[in-house]
Amino acid sequence: MAIQLSQKEKMLLQDQQRHEEVCIDKYRTYAQKAQDPQLKQLFNSYAQQEQQHYNTLEQILQGQTPSIQGQQQQQIPGQNLQGSNNPNDAGLCNDMLMTEKYVSGTYDTVIFECQQNSVRQALNHIQKEEQEHGEGIFNYMKNSGMYQPQ
Ligand SMILES: [Fe+2]
Ligand SMILES: [Fe+2]
User: Fold this and answer.
1) In the chain, what are the domains?
2) How far is residue 129's CA from residue 87's CA, in Å, rounded to a whole number?
3) Which ligand does the CA of 27 lie closest to?
């Protein structure tokens, strides 16, 4: 059964797709710019998840019931990652942390506008992953001495 979306839902979902495109682009570019190989790998794996988010939004916009992609997170994101306190890598991390915080917030707006439970579930799942991306970067920065919570 095709999902019926309101004009408002469509517009908000399209906005989220643009955000996901920016995330895919940034993570790919920053994976190349990062000096620490572990950070490169982290950014590349997040780029892949952002692509899945994009694809899920596309499914919803095509009127299909979204399939929730991605496996359950078993361990704390970024828990065991440690780089060196390198200003170049710290700058990339700060930028992505700010981006994830923004994108996670914008999902709230869409979720509260959804008529279908299946769409809400799928967007909740994406939002949770954005917060896990933030957590992974936060932990990487903390372990690398780039950020000291006071
Ligand atoms: Fe995303
Ligand atoms: Fe993300």
Assistant:
1) 7-60+81-143 (1.20.1260.10)
2) 26
3) 2
